[in-house]
Amino acid sequence: MTNPRQIAFNALRDVHKGAYADVALDRVLQKINLADRDRRLVTELVYGSVRRQRTLDALIDQLATKKSQQQPPDLRTILHLGLYQLRYQERIPASAAVNTTVELAKENGFAGLTGFANGVLRQYIRLAEKSPEPLELPENPVERLGILHSFPDWIIQVWLEQLGFVETEKLCEWMNQTPTIDLRVNLLRSSIEQVESAFKSAGVLVRRIPSLPQALRLIGSTGPIQNLPGFREGWWTVQDSSAQLVSHLLDPQPGEVVIDVCAAPGGKTTHIAELMGDNGKVWACDRTPSRLRKLQQNAQRLNLHSIEICTGDSRNLPQFQNTADRVLIDAPCSGLGTMHRHADARWRQTPESVRELSLLQTELLAHTSTFVKQGGVLVYATCTLHPAENEGVISQFLAEYPHWQIETDSLDLPDSAYSVPPGWLKVWPHQQDMDGFFMVRLRKTNNSE
Ligand SMILES: C[S@@+](CC[C@H](N)C(=O)[O-])C[C@H]1O[C@@H](n2cnc3c(N)ncnc32)[C@H](O)[C@@H]1O
């Protein structure tokens, strides 16, 4: 079986039964040897249909007599696939989208409903010919943005409160794009010029990121990342630009003791070790052994020796009290800043999961801040854009522990343009064209007032 739409349908069926979209996709792709072009189509159809689920459901609600949620689940998935192609895949002719969807319905137990599937799609085509926006949208701004850009209302609400309508819409559009891949050059093994030159010889296009001296962005599709020049030699690692800012904010120095309390799979741990010239000690603590194994492999490939692993819950590591010059908390979070990388993330998080995460973050901060020596530094970072996990956690901590202060005047970053008062850094993806991130640097002072 090599029909890309049938393969996409099989993966989507698993997703609707609860599987993660990337896992379901990998599972179906591993079973067959598809041409690159078909593989890309399956990927686009699976991730696109999952990402745009709310918009596609709204279209079914509008075009069919029965609401999307009342349709048989597999038929709803087939309609998602057809409408996704019509609405978002300009390169696929409308007739091909309709015919293949009808065929899918016939092959998957809906032979009696092919006329219905055909009718829904043809009705969409007719409306799209008459109007640039066939979808009927409500006036209410939260629902309007949520339906048009396919996000749950609560996420739209959180962003509207911070950004207003126009910027929230830009952020939604940015989050629906295909993600880019950035690399961080390991300056202990290579140089940015050497990596650029090796890529050029291999016909791989990259561009530099202004203000981040170690970063390169891949342009276009490159095939498997491990096959790119310099990977095995440890010349570079994959890390988004905004994630690179975090270790710069921490500003670790050679010879210091640094504890990375949520370290796996090691993107930031290895960056810290590189910035220290691999001289000193970087403790990599995490409670997930499988992710720590990846950290170990990454450190080996990058030829870093100053990293030591500690497996366990960082809320309970009394041995580290007062031992660190610097601590990094790259906290587990709801990931609202990286939803373009995980098609189903927006449907998995809830206001309740955000509340639970903010409690975990608060506990991690309270305990691991005791690891820092007097005068030392702690950086708290997340890849989410929810104030309850960011400003909320830090404000509460500062109110409870007055000897900690935000460092506002010494943000020695490649580019401090993202800095917002009172000293925290917030990367809004649609403004900086990188993953959404929050980070703040705190210092432990003598002052107990
Ligand atoms: C955002 S990820 C860290 C990413 C990592 N810093 C990097 O740059 O590659 C958060 C990590 O926190 C870990 N984690 C969650 N709760 C923890 C806890 N209580 N103690 C230690 N690690 C925890 C998770 O296993 C996960 O690996």
Write a brief structural summary.
This protein is an alpha/beta fold and 449 residues long. The protein folds into 3 domains: 4-136, N-utilizing Substance Protein B Homolog, Chain A (Orthogonal Bundle); 181-238, 2-Layer Sandwich (Alpha-Beta Plaits), CATH 3.30.70.1170; 241-444, 3-Layer(aba) Sandwich (Rossmann fold). It has helices at residues 4-16, 21-30, 36-51, 53-63, 73-88, 94-107, 114-130, 141-149, 153-163, 165-175, 192-201, 241-250, 267-275, 289-301, 345-348, 351-368, 391-400, 429-432, and strands at 182-185, 205-209, 212-219, 236-238, 257-260, 281-286, 307-311, 324-330, 372-382, 404-406, 419-420, 424-427, 437-444.
Strands, helices and their partners?
Elements: H1 4-16, H2 21-30, H3 36-51, H4 53-63, H5 73-88, H6 94-107, H7 114-130, H8 141-149, H9 153-163, H10 165-175, E1 182-185, H11 192-201, E2 205-209, E3 212-219, E4 236-238, H12 241-250, E5 257-260, H13 267-275, E6 281-286, H14 289-301, E7 307-311, E8 324-330, H15 345-348, H16 351-368, E9 372-382, H17 391-400, E10 404-406, E11 419-420, E12 424-427, H18 429-432, E13 437-444
Parallel strand pairs: 5-6, 5-8, 6-7, 8-9
Antiparallel strand pairs: 1-3, 1-4, 2-3, 9-13, 10-13, 11-12, 12-13
Helix pairs in contact: 1-2, 1-3, 1-5, 2-3, 3-5, 4-5, 5-6, 5-7, 6-7, 8-9, 9-10, 12-13, 16-17
The chain binds S-adenosylmethionine.
Residues 262-268, 285-288, 291, 313-315, 330, 332, 364 line the site of S-adenosylmethionine.
Observed structural traits:
449 residues, binds S-adenosylmethionine, nine-stranded mixed sheet, 16% strand, N-utilizing Substance Protein B Homolog, Chain A, alpha/beta, Alpha-Beta Plaits
